[in-house]
Amino acid sequence: MKTIFRLAPLAMLLVLAGCHSTKHDTTTLMANDFQNVIDRTGAPHAMLDYDFDEHQRFNPLFDDGAWHGHLLPASSEGMGGFPGPALLTEEYINFMANNFDRLSVYQNGKKIAFTMKAYSIPGALIQTLTSPGVTVKMTLRFVTSRTSLLETEITTDAPLELVWDGELLEKYHLQEQKPQSDETIEQAFPGYTRTLHATSDGLNVTFGKVRADSNLMTSGQSQYQIHKTLPMRTQIDGHRFIAKANIESSITLYTTYSHLLTATEVQKEQSKIADILKHPQTYQTASEQRWEGYLESGLKNPAATAAQTRVAVKAIETLNGNWRGGCDEI
C-alpha cells in the first residue's frame, strides 16, 4: 500500500511553500494552527448533491485511503453528528444520509440545548457542545484505510440519556439553480437495496448490487458499519434508526465507522475494528502523529507567508483526500 508521505513533496513541486516546521508534542499539534483551511461543513439532501456547475457541493474529510468521508454540521440542526457520510461507491461520491449517528443528550427527560463550536484541522473534525453542567467534545479521525474513529468525551455532573439517530437519504439528485427532481434513489436504482441491521455493538447498512457506469457501482457485498464501546438499545424502522444508552457520570466512548466494499474487506476489517476499540488512544495518537509528519515534511520554507503556508496545507489535505487504498481489482 502506498505511503502518503509522498504527497508532501508533490505539494512542493506545485510551488506551494510552507513555513519552517518545529517539533510539537501531542498537546501542541502543528495541525491546530490550521483550522478550517478547507470548508468541511455541509448538509446533503440527496445522494447526488451538486452545485450549479454540477460539481460536488461539499468537501468531506477523506483520509488514509478510506472510501468514505465525513462533514461538519452546517447549522445547529446537524449538531452532535458529522453529516453524511459520503461513500465512494468504487468510483463515485454518493451521500448515504444527511446525518447518520447524530447524538442528542437528555437530562431528566428533557433535551439539552447546547452551544456548538465545530471546526476542522488537517486530519480531524472537532466538535464541542457546551451547556451548564454538561460538555461533549467529539474528535473524529481516520485510523485505517477503511475505518474512521470518533472519540466522544462527555463531562457531566448528573445522569444522562444518550440518543443517536439517523436516516438514509431517499432523494436521488439535487442541483443548485436547477429545477428539482422528485426521483428517488429506489426509482433510479431498483437493485440498490439498502437495509439497516442492528448488531450487538452498533449498526450495519448493507447495499444491493448496482453496476451503473458513471453513476453508481456496488458489489452487492458492501457495507457501512458502526461499532461503539457503549452498549445501546437500537430500534430500526425501515431506513431510519434510533439508539439509546444511559450513563450515570462522565465518560469517554468510542465509535468506529467503516465503509467496506467487498465480502473480503468486511472479513478482514473486523479484527482491526476490534483492536481499535480495545486500544482507541493508540490509534488516535498514531493518526495525530501521521498528520504531524505530513505537515513537518511539507512545510519547510522559512520565507513563506502565512497565506502561502495555508495554500500548502490545503494542497496536502486535498492530495491526501484524493488517494484511495487498493481494494481487490478496483
Automatic annotation (TrEMBL):
Enumerate the UniProt keywords alphabetically. Answer: Isomerase, Signal
List, alphabetically, the Gene3D superfamilies matched. Answer: 1.10.287.100, putative glycoside hydrolase family protein from bacillus halodurans
Q: Which residues form a coiled coil?
A: none
Q: Which residues form the Glucosidase YgjK N-terminal domain?
A: 39-292
Which Pfam families does the annotation name?
YgjK_N
* Single GO molecular function: isomerase activity
Superkingdom of origin organism: Bacteria
Secretion signal, residue range per the UniProt entry: 1-17
The family database entries (InterPro entries) matched by this protein are listed as:
YgjK_N
In Swiss-Prot or TrEMBL terms, this protein is called: Putative isomerase
Record organism? Buttiauxella gaviniae ATCC 51604
- Organism lineage: Bacteria, Pseudomonadati, Pseudomonadota, Gammaproteobacteria, Enterobacterales
